[in-house]
Amino acid sequence: MDDKAEKNKGAKDKRKVTIEIHKSEDFRQIYAIGALGGHSPYDFRISFYNDSPQRFGPQNNTHVMKRQIETELILSPLAALELSRWLNQHLQEYEKKFGPITRPRTKAPDPKSTDNSSNIQGYT
Length: 124
Hints:
By secondary structure, this protein is an alpha+beta fold. About 25% of the residues lie in helices and about 25% in strands.
């Protein structure tokens, strides 16, 4: 490699990239209590949802919950990996500052109870 090519290579390596972040006009925030999804060889899909009780009736001890999918995120495998790393880093920082994140404790089921319903996140 000649001197000129070496200088050009060095100049390219020293360039700084500035990223400007802008929110689109239709940007909106959602709060989700959970996520579900899966993957294919091509992408990862994560749907974020909220649950709300619809009916709690005495008939057969039936409880009906409405699970509303709020939005779905579709990521390339590389973007999913980067999201995982970013999220793990931020979880570690959060726990270092605020302490471990724990799941809410649920009371043990009463063995005499005939209620076989399972707890849904955020609702008992």
